[in-house]
Design goal:
- The structure is a single chain.
- About 30% of the residues lie in helices and about 20% in strands.
- It contains seven helices and ten strands.
- Strand 6 and strand 7 form a beta hairpin.
- Helix 1 packs parallel to helix 7, helix 4 crosses helix 7 and helix 6 packs across helix 7.
- It binds a DNA duplex (13 and 13 nucleotides) through helix 6.
Length: about 270
DNA sequence: TACATATGATCAT
DNA sequence: TGATCCTATGTAA
């Protein structure tokens, strides 16, 4: 479930579990055997999330880079629980917890130059302190592409994925096919503010819940049942939770996008 | 058992 | 735009 909130949550949780101590590293599946052997026995100094990119800084200037991609996943278990079966590319064990990584798009030791390149290619990250809304507004409004495609462009905003792009556009009442350049400054700023609020909530809950307080009938956000957490994502043909109109679906930016035809009119 | 699908991104055409 | 990579899961056959 990797959008930006997931990666920031992983950075935080792994820092708490593993940082400041010697870490045992291995690659049960074998495809990261050399890198894991290099890391094994080193102290984790810190972790860092940048959009969907995760970094671990180890002593000896070792830099671990993980990008989960579509299907990558970290599994967290206690050391006294049995190790999970499956294709574990990287296993990290601290004093009490074990983190198993499966299916990542990238899992590599990288040079600082590559790290700097990755970071400098990213747009502002709404979960990062000091990220500038104005930076996002400028980058977004330069794009001629549909706003739904621009939101998946990590050089425009770092950390948005296919769920949040549909949900954010619904929340701001913006039709996904509108060219990004047609958004006025207020609309773009509000889209940024919505992204900050929603990703912060997702980080806290460790899951995506965009439905507003008034639409969840007093239930706490963390208690919203699965299937009632989102407004439009994967709800094609189902009634809009606000107005009842059937949710529509199309492919934009090579991915499916969902929207409400009434609450997100095409006109500006 | 096979296939489709998935919250991602890159590369070839 | 389509093929490709990584893995797990749910549904169909």
């Amino acid at each position: 479930m990797p959008e930006g909130h997931t990666i920031h949550r992983l950075a935080r949780d792994q820092r708490r579990d593993l940082a400041g101590h010697l870490v045992r590293a291995s690659s049960p599946q074998g495809r990261f055997a050399v890198g894991a052997a290099d890391l094994d026995g080193r102290v984790l100094l810190g972790t860092e999330a940048r959009g969907k990119h995760l970094f671990h800084h180890y002593e000896g200037s070792r830099l671990l880079y993980v990008h989960l991609g579509l299907i990558g996943k970290f599994h967290r278990d206690r050391l006294d629980e049995p190790a999970r079966l499956g294709e574990v590319r990287l296993r990290l064990e601290g004093r009490a917890m074990r983190w198993d990584l499966t299916g990542p798009m990238r899992c590599d030791l990288i040079a600082v130059t590559e790290y700097e390149q990755i970071v400098s290619d990213l747009g502002p990250d709404p979960l990062r302190r000091g990220a500038r809304a104005a930076d996002f507004v400028t980058r977004l409004r330069r794009k001629r592409a549909p706003v739904a495609a621009a939101l998946l462009d990590q050089t425009v905003i770092a950390g948005i994925g296919n769920v949040y792009r549909s949900e954010l556009l619904f929340l701001r009442g913006i039709h996904p096919a509108r060219p990004a350049a047609t958004l006025d400054e207020d609309e773009a700023h509000q889209l940024w503010d919505e992204a900050v609020a929603q990703l912060r909530l997702g980080l806290r809950l460790n899951r995506i819940v965009t439905i507003s307080a008034e639409d969840r009938y007093g239930r706490a956000a963390g208690r919203v049942p699965a299937g009632e957490r989102l407004y439009v994502y994967q709800r094609a043909g189902l009634p809009c939770r606000r107005c009842g109109a059937p949710i529509e679906r199309a492919v934009l930016g090579a991915r499916k996008v969902w929207w409400c035809p009434i609450d997100q009119p095409l006109r500006a």
